[in-house]
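Throughout this chapter, every protein is written as a compact record of paired, labelled lines. An example of such a record is reproduced below:
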Amino acid sequence: MDYSRDVFLNDQIVILDGLTGTGKTMFTPLISSFERVQNARFEYMFEYLCISSKHKKITEDAYKSLLNLLSDIKLYDGLISREVNFRPSDLSSVFKSSKSLKYLKQLFLSDGANVEKRIRLEKPILFLVTHQLLSCMDPAIKSFGKRLKIIQMVRHPAYLIDHWASYISMHGQNARDFTLWFKHKEIQIPWFAKNIRDKYINSNDYDKVVYCIYELYKTVFQLKKSETYKENLEFVQFEKFVLNPEPTLNNLERFLNTKQSKSTSKYLSKQKVPRDRITQGPQKKIYKRYGLKKEKNISDKDHYFKTLSLLKKECTKEAYAVLLEMSDKYEKLFGKWF
């Protein structure tokens, strides 16, 4: 007998995905500011179910039922402020949202049938944030169908390397890393290194990062060219967005079938968007933690070639060639910004 769930509370689910470092920290409160969109949730169980399904560790009836069940629970809980993040410093905190007062008031609302009535009237949109999940997103698309909208953040790979290099050694080694791991030759590796496992365990940190990012970007490149998930997927390029946000915001209003709110412009201003150069963003603690340094009085073009020059010193010749190949593919598909 198979698991089954064919009635849903959720009418629309939005997932913001992208590799670590592509701009989800900036984009999360912006999407939350749109009308009807709930405060963002980092729900690792959604990721684990999709990844497990991709690697054939869970049956189709199980992942479909569980993903739909979890999404309905999270929508329901959000509407009565149950399991909502009130930790002020967290990226997903309601206090980072324009709807913080609403979530405080919801603590005192009735549950049960009253929540279903509010769902019909308010048409809330569940908002989830995931990490480099695009290659494993097929189970979510099969589970949610047209109800799912994926906003995929992309950024030039050269600008992800240092960020990833500051963390890569945690994978398979530190219990505070909540990524799914595989074991290969008695060494634990992150799930996205499965297809490059020998290369991964025999490489230095910077080379590992280049190979992993390319492995994940292969799906990005493929889906950008093929438009396989056209109804479900919208790409947002970090560089073009921070320089000129209006085209992206207008596309998102159409894609999500909702509107920006009065607070959207406030969050744009907080993130210094639009910018004259991509390096003019705010210096938050989380950015500094991962080695991102603000550079003044340097053009985007000069900064780009300086970044490549510095990475050339950190990578082996083989890995640097892979980085250049990946960069070329990115620029052909998404364009340059300078």
Observations:
- Residues 81 and 105 are 9 Å apart (CA to CA).
- The radius of gyration is 20 Å.
